Amino acid sequence: MSEQSTTPSPSKIADQELEIKAECRLATDTNIYSPAVACGISSEGVHLISARRFGGGAMLTVRLIVPESDTAIIKRAKVRYVRPEGDNQWLHSCAFMKTLQEEELRALRGSPRL
Known about the structure:
CATH architecture: Beta Barrel
Shape: globular
Structural class: mainly beta
Number of helices: 2
Mean pLDDT: 74
Helix content: under 10%
CATH superfamily: predicted glycosyltransferase like domains
Number of domains: 1
Strand content: 35-45%
Largest sheet: 6 strands, antiparallel, barrel
């Protein structure tokens, strides 16, 4: 019987949602900054938890810091929906305006700070 690799192929990495827990800072078009925690990221978007509620359709700037690096990936994202998450917290499902590239996702596979 041949051995099969359990590592996803590069083409599948972009489709996986990576579970991350990291600090992040969100900026709106009006330069309102808010701390948040990312709890999942894929090539198409990110889930963010914040004490501040941003409404559906809000445009955010999300700064992704590559682990063990000073490199930042900055993406614009649109809030698709919001729901309550625990005490005074909100889960925001956000879609990136421009998808993350495979190499960007690979760089973020550690514990990125956003």
